[in-house]
From TrEMBL:
Pfam families: PhoU. The lineage of its organism: Bacteria, Pseudomonadati, Pseudomonadota, Alphaproteobacteria, Caulobacterales. Residues 220-241 are annotated as: Disordered. It comes from Candidatus Phycosocius bacilliformis. Its main location: cytoplasm. Homodimer. It comes from the Bacteria. The keyword Cell wall biogenesis/degradation does not apply. PANTHER family: PHOSPHATE-SPECIFIC TRANSPORT SYSTEM ACCESSORY PROTEIN PHOU. Plays a role in the regulation of phosphate uptake. One of its GO terms (cellular component) is cytoplasm. The gene is phoU. It is found in: Cytoplasm. Belongs to the PhoU family. This is Phosphate-specific transport system accessory protein PhoU.
Amino acid sequence: MTEHTVRAFTEELEALGADLNRMGGYSEQALSDAITAMARRDAGLARTVIDGDKKIDELQREIERKIMRLLALRQPLGRDLRQTVAALKLAGDLERIGDLAKNIAKRALTIQEFDPIALTRSVERMGKIAVTQLKQILDTFASHEVAGAVSVWMQDEELDEHYNSLFRELLTYMMEDPRMIGPGAHLLFVAKNLERIGDHCTNMAEVIYYLETGEDIGTDRPKAVDPAMPPLPPPNSESSK
């Protein structure tokens, strides 16, 4: 490669990183605003989140086009290849986080049709944890700090436990008072979306760790048991045959 080609390639990779940082900022803002819209029953803010998802989707498509061009024309190797493939994976996770934030905003609009219930605050607290995890992993990507990726990866169980606790509480509410079934069901969907956002943050942590080290972060991701899922049968049971 000539010096000019190397410089141009470096600039393209830096531009790709800048696009990812911008996309991450949009996704973080969408999630934060969706949680605020739900907690404050702010219909205007919820609609802003819903409309703003197009911007995240467009940026993902632009990033994918740049990545395809890099792979075709530059044929990167080593860290450059890891950086290019990592960008593709990270853009996918950020796009899904944007979708989940939009889903939360849609639920926020529906929840406003019901009287407020106390557990909305618990869902809001869970949302703030998700926002913090997303911010932490975006900061890790920008700073190249491997320790930040490990920290987020290890926090995955925290959101799982919040979701499990909320699932049981909301189920109890709905069983005790049929009037709670509507708002309770919508809050359950919000909580599940937040739990999924935690999973995407963990995915991003794994990608960033591999980008920076060239190694896998581990195989046994810490997970809490989802109370909505039936337990798996023992390996030697009749149902597993």
